Amino acid sequence: MYTIGILQLTQNLDDAVHGFKAELTERGIHAEFHYFNADGNIDQLAKLANQLAEKKVDLIFACSTPAASAAVKLTQDIPVVFTPVFDPIGANLVLSMAEPGGKATGVAGMVKADDKLNFMERILPTIQKIGVLYHTEDSNAIVEVANFRKLNNPKVQFIEIPIKEAEDLSNLLDLLPSDLEALFLPIGKVIEDNFATIVYYTDTLEIPIIASHAPNVPDGALAGLVANHYQLGKECAVKAMQILKGASPSQIPVDTVKAPEIWLNQFTAENLGISFSEDLKEEATEVFE
């Protein structure tokens, strides 16, 4: 029987863990799991990773960029499978997506910036000004902002709205330009933890939110083009099985989100006077009434 460590930053990634374990079981891999969740405390991850190493696990499944980083930094040569890391190369987890070159591989969780823009244009065909609200200390959000900059779309202007701390959100009415047509929220703990505050202000200004974090959609965002964390976990399990059977993670390519899901909030749309097209609703994985 194999021994697998699971290192998780927050419970928001539980679905990835469930998918990972379910796929291993389906493929006949029997394992004892040691599970550690830092409950959002990044500073605890190194300690938890060391505890997994002390248990002599055969592999670590790391959920989130900080968790993967903590696992990869272990001096022990323990293979790491990660998700939903947005930028594995920038996070120094791998040398390249095709040939990771180290002891880690996995499935990146970022949906491409051009796919997100196309999605926003499907919902709001005349959109020209999109705000991007992000926490300046969040590495994943910074990557998303950089990717939007690279689009150079002549029809759409991305207006960056950085915050340094959660308390800055109390001034959101002043931070949001009056002519903003939508607000995009990158993945990020500060943004997710304070989503209710953001919705309060955007509802006041009647600005629709496009979310990266799926649970934000039923909680008031207009829509989201999101990765299915359960599916990411299943795909990671396939890589874990290869490693447990003897393959080196250095030679197992890092995959990306193949089929992001469309989540729509019909109630929010009606409140904002926005209509979803029938074909968009048919494509949607979830439509919240």
UniProtKB/TrEMBL annotation:
InterPro entries: ABC_transpt-TYRBP-like (IPR007487), Peripla_BP_I (IPR028082). It holds the Pfam family ABC_sub_bind. This is Putative ABC transport system substrate-binding protein.
